[in-house]
Amino acid sequence: MDKNSKIYLAGHRGMVGSAILRQLSDAGYQNVVVRTHAELDLTDQAAVRRFLDSEKPDWVILAAAKVGGIHANNEYPAEFIYQNLMIEANVVHAAWLANCRKLLFLGSSCIYPKFAEQPMREEALLTGILESTNEPYAIAKIAGIKLCESYNRQYGVDYRSVMPTNLYGENDNFHLENSHVIPALIRKFHDAKLNNSPTVEVWGTGNAMREFLHVDDMAAACIHVMGLSEAEYKSCTEPMLSHLNVGTGMDVTIRELAETIGRVVGYQGEISWNTNKPDGTPRKLMDVSKLKSLGWQPKIGLEEGLSTTYQWFLAHQGQFKSH
């Protein structure tokens, strides 16, 4: 990837997109094109087509998506499937129409079956039923993978897909109900510390296992995958695959996670487990051997990453007070 390449980064204000933008800038990529949602609605097919036809980027990074935790996925399934399908279809098709031969699509580990063999290998895609709590979102992300795969097959373009495990870090959403588990717990433990609450309630049994990757590691992985030659990428994704897992290859129980967050925040009380609430998928651990064989490794440990994320939250907590 040439430093002068024109790169359109969709979703630059989101957690992953903002991390990618920072790292592209730090690496010397000066020709990065961005648009806010107010400037370009990615669910508007005609607007997306006009924009990409005008800009004609060398690369498109599709980091824009509607995302949320279990509660949000349960409450707004139509929004999750519709918006994500429209964003993917519009951007991928318009990129092809604009003669953009290089694209990176960001998916999610929820594409894999609920009871996939652990750790989950790329080959597990479409081999079983999905976790019901986020099925609409997962189906949309699977469609994104297949869009890239289909355009590669039919048109000979080089559209790549990366599937991150659970992400956290700077610019996350700390809404108590609509966020993912790490920001929700950071917010809960922080509020409990301020209020001297004797207990913090956490959903589920605490036995579910999850893998977590800091967003800066994810951004580095994206840039690494973009920098691979087409032959290198295909060496790990063909003939039957079209995507690569991105993760740490290590997981923890939600109980261990909650205890670590409590320690990082400095909360002294007890944790109570609401077993009437869902655990979600029993375990989600990624097999990341393919990406590691291509020269990438994560660098940020969980406790270190949680600590820097909490510090970011403290510096920006004013924007979350209304939630």
Automatic annotation (TrEMBL):
Q: Which sites bind NADP(+)?
A: 11-17, 106-109, 141, 164-167, 180
* Entry's EC annotation: 1.1.1.271
- Residues annotated as binding substrate are K188, W203, R210, D279
Family statement: Belongs to the NAD(P)-dependent epimerase/dehydratase family. Fucose synthase subfamily.
Report the protein's function. Catalyzes the two-step NADP-dependent conversion of GDP-4-dehydro-6-deoxy-D-mannose to GDP-fucose, involving an epimerase and a reductase reaction.
Q: Which residues carry the site feature described as Important for catalytic activity? A: S108, C110
Give the source's domain of life in one word. Answer: Bacteria
Gene Ontology molecular function:
GDP-L-fucose synthase activity; isomerase activity; NADP+ binding
Give the protein's recorded name: GDP-L-fucose synthase
Q: Does the keyword Metal-binding apply?
A: no
Q: Which reaction does it catalyse?
A: GDP-beta-L-fucose + NADP(+) = GDP-4-dehydro-alpha-D-rhamnose + NADPH + H(+)
One Gene Ontology BP term is: 'de novo' GDP-L-fucose biosynthetic process
Q: Which organism is it from?
A: Methylomonas koyamae
Q: Which residues form the active site?
A: Y137 (proton donor/acceptor)
Annotated NAD-dependent epimerase/dehydratase domain residues:
7-228
Pfam short name (any one): Epimerase
Q: In which pathway does it act?
A: Nucleotide-sugar biosynthesis; GDP-L-fucose biosynthesis via de novo pathway; GDP-L-fucose from GDP-alpha-D-mannose: step 2/2
Keywords associated with the record: Isomerase, Multifunctional enzyme, NADP, Oxidoreductase
